[in-house]
Design a protein that fits this description.
It is an enzyme of class 2 (transferase). It is built from ten helices and seven strands. The chain has 279 residues and is of the alpha/beta class. The chain has a seven-stranded mixed β-sheet, sandwiched between helices.
């Protein structure tokens, strides 16, 4: 099998990191395992090192995406696998993901099954929103937009680092960029387990940050889709106002309908300009 490196970001994961490292080494003996300790206040670094991982330490918490980027830069192999340090992903499936790259895919993703990934009722609406935005932009169904178990080639992902989120949205924006640039992505169904320890996601802050990065990626790689999405409500309002004008015989509603149509054309025109600038 192709040689590969496994990068695991970890923040206060002392309780589970050793088991994850040992499971990776058991599934793929001889692979390089890099744990990026993102400013942990507990014994995450020492536990990872004792389990046989190479440890990179941040002096302060810098974020999930930043940890992955630093680990990917350190990886000695061209093929890189990323996994979480909380034990929620079945790392024994890593060889299956790497095998997909050997078949010619640019990225292989472990697509989580069931509802365990929605471990909080507060997270579910945000994830469904992001899924809709990503699928609408790429024009295709995506089984799992933000799975943290995936593999890719180092040389292909490095050029995208300036556009990738340094927080929890790293995987979402990576999925979006790969799809928008025409790369081949394989999805393998995987079991998703209850994590060890507590989640580090802050709902409001990380939701807003994810939305920001998704919009930035869409504007950079496919701006027409974003402007089309913004024009759709205006078109629906114009139609509703026109129907109401006919039904209620209110000429003033035709003015409202015309304004919505004009605003829609202006927005779409801006989208065309953004598309030409991008090219």
């Amino acid at each position: 099998m192709t040689a590969f490196s496994v990068v695991i970001p970890a923040y206060n994961e002392e309780a589970g990191i050793a088991a994850v490292v040992e499971a990776v080494r058991a599934a793929a003996p001889g692979c390089e395992v890099i744990v990026v300790d993102d400013g942990s206040a507990d014994g995450t670094a020492s536990a990872a090192a004792a389990a046989g991982a190479t440890v990179c330490r941040h002096p302060a918490n810098a974020g999930y995406g930043r940890s992955l980027m630093d680990g990917i830069r350190l990886a000695a192999n061209e093929v890189v696998v990323i996994a979480d340090g909380d034990g929620s992903y079945p790392v024994e499936r890593i060889p299956d993901l790497v095998a997909k790259l050997e078949e010619g895919f640019d990225m292989a993703v472990g697509a989580r099954q069931g509802t365990q990934q929605y471990d909080s009722v507060l997270k579910a609406p945000a994830r469904l929103l992001f899924k809709f935005l990503v699928e609408f932009t790429v024009g295709a169904r995506i089984p799992d937009i933000n799975s943290g178990l995936r593999c890719f080639r180092k040389s292909e992902v490095l050029p995208y680092f300036p556009d990738l989120c340094q927080g929890f949205s790293f995987t979402t924006t990576l999925t979006l960029i790969y799809k928008l640039t025409g790369k081949f992505v394989a999805y393998l169904p995987i079991e998703y387990r209850r994590r060890v320890g507590t989640s580090k996601i802050r709902i409001v802050r990380d939701t807003l940050r994810t939305l920001q990065y998704i919009v930035e990626v869409i504007v950079t790689y496919n701006p027409l889709k974003l402007f089309l999405l913004l024009c759709t409500p205006l078109g629906l309002l114009a139609l509703a106002a026109a129907i109401a004008a006919v039904a209620a015989r209110q000429p003033a509603l035709w003015v409202a309908s015309s304004i919505c149509v004009a605003a829609g054309f202006l927005l779409f025109g801006l989208g065309l300009v953004a598309y030409q600038v991008r090219r």
